[in-house]
Amino acid sequence: MVEVTEAGLRVGAAASIQGLRPVVRAIIEELPEHKSRGFAALLETMSVFASTQIRNVASIGGNIVTANAVSDINPFLLATGATLQVMDTEGKTRDIAVEEKFFLPNGQTSLSRGDIIVSVLIPYTTEGEFVQVYKQSSRGEVDRAVVNAAMRLVLTSDLQIVSDVSLVFGGMGDRPLLASRTMKALQGRKWDRSLVEFACSADMLPSDLPLAPDSQGGMVAYRRTLTLSIFFRFFLSVSEKLGRIWIEKRPAL
Ligand SMILES: Cc1cc2nc3c(=O)[nH]c(=O)nc-3n(C[C@H](O)[C@H](O)[C@H](O)COP(=O)(O)OP(=O)(O)OC[C@H]3O[C@@H](n4cnc5c(N)ncnc54)[C@H](O)[C@@H]3O)c2cc1C
C-alpha cells in the first residue's frame, strides 16, 4: 500500500523496495519539487540498495526491523523524521517516531515483542528544506555501504541561516548514529563555506563519530574521512540547489 496523505507519503511496511520505486517516481512527478525532496532521496536510496533480486523480496518493514548498522533505509527515516504505525498483539495501533532511541545496539529496536509495523509515514519537505542520501561502498552496485548517510537541512525563510539540521550516519557504529553535537552547533549559523570548516573541525563531526582503532569492519581512517567528505558533498549539493533557486527568484532584467 502506498498512499499520498495530507501529512506525507504513507508506505505499507510489506511493500518491496523494487515495487516501491516506480510508485514513488510517479508520485514525485505529480508533486511540486520542494514538497518531494525527501521522496527523491528515498528513490535514490532504493536505487543503490543491493541488487534487483534482493530488492524484489526486501520489504521496507523488514529492513527497519533487521536494524542493520549499514541499512540504507534507516538513516533516511531518522533524518526525515518518519513515523511508524505499529500494531500490537491485541490489534491496537499506535504511532512511533523514528528517532535516535528507536534503534538499539546490535540490530535491536525499541519495538515490543509481537509488534508489527503496519506502515511508515514520510513527511513532505518544505521550500527551505533539503534532503540528500549518500552511500559509499566498495563496489558501485550490489554492495553494502562502508559508510552511508542521510542529511536534512532546514533553512530560514531567507534561505541563509540553518534553522534545523539532521546528520545521520550508518557504518560508524552498531546502529545509525546522529551527529548530535554538530547538529546542535550548526543551528543559527550562516550556510556558507565557513560552516563546512566548522562542522569538520576536530570537536564537531570527528568527535560525534569516533571509531575505535579496532572497530569491526576495519578501514577506520577511511570511514572517518568519509564522514567529512560526505558532509562536504552535502554542502555542495545544497549550495548548488540554492544557486538555482536564487536564479529562479531573481527579477527578470
Ligand atoms: C545479498 C544481500 C544484500 C543486501 N544489501 C543490502 C543493502 O544494500 N542495503 C540494505 O539496507 N540492506 C541490504 N540487505 C539487507 C536486506 O535487504 C534487508 O534485511 C531486507 O530489507 C529485509 O526485508 P525482508 O522483507 O526480507 O525481511 P525479513 O528477512 O522477512 O524479516 C526481517 C525481520 O524483520 C521482521 N519483520 C519483517 N517485516 C516486519 C514488520 N512489518 N513488522 C515487524 N517485524 C517485521 C521479521 O519477523 C524478521 O525478524 C541485503 C541483504 C542481502 C541478503
UniProtKB/TrEMBL annotation:
Pfam families: CO_deh_flav_C, FAD_binding_5. InterPro entries: Ald_Oxase/xanthine_DH-like, CO_DH_flav_C, CO_DH_flav_C_dom_sf, FAD-bd_PCMH, FAD-bd_PCMH-like_sf, FAD-bd_PCMH_sub2, Mopterin_DH_FAD-bd. It comes from the Eukaryota. PROSITE patterns: FAD_PCMH. Residues 1-127 form the FAD-binding PCMH-type domain. PANTHER family: XANTHINE DEHYDROGENASE. This is Xanthine dehydrogenase/oxidase-like. It comes from Aplysia californica (California sea hare). The gene is LOC118478017.
